[in-house]
Amino acid sequence: EVQLVESGGGLVQAGGSLRLSCVASGFTFDDYAIGWFRQVPGKERERVSCIRSFDDSTYYADSVKGRFTISSDGAKNTVYLQMNSLKPEDTAVYYCNYPGYWGQGTQVTVSS
């Protein structure tokens, strides 16, 4: 069974940094595409970033380019999202996604 467990969220001031972690299990971690999404109440879930193991390609939403970095550690079955220069508009619940599966989410709150 696929499981995704996020951690690393919290409260941070604007301009600060957080690193989110997504520990994955239940599938072969050398053949995956994993993404980070975020959602605020009343809005659709937005794709923030994703990484594909096949060619180590990455994707970033325009709103986070240059500030967020996605990476993975195969030995730990973990995908990270390093978030720098955080803005109040980055406040959301962040979810890890493997096709067809979601983690429980971790809250990120950026104060101005």
Concise synopsis of the structure shown:
The chain is mostly beta strands. The protein is built from no helices and eleven strands.
Helical stretch tally: 0
> Any low-confidence stretches, pLDDT <50, length ≥5?
none
Output the structural class: mainly beta
Quaternary structure of the protein: single chain
- Largest sheet composition: 7 strands, mixed
Roughly what percent helix?
under 10%
Rg over C-alpha atoms, rounded to the nearest angstrom: 13 Å
Q: From N to C, what is the helix and strand string?
A: EEEEEEEEEEE
Residues in β-strands, percent:
over 45%
Shape: globular
Distance between the termini: 40 Å
User: What is the number of E strands?
Assistant: 11
Average pLDDT metric: 95
Description:
- With 112 residues, the protein is an all-beta fold.
- Helices cover 0% and strands 55% of the residues.
- The strands form 2 sheets. Strands 2, 4, 5, 6, 9, 10 and 11 form a 7-stranded mixed β-sheet that branches.
- Strand 5 (46-52) and strand 6 form a beta hairpin.
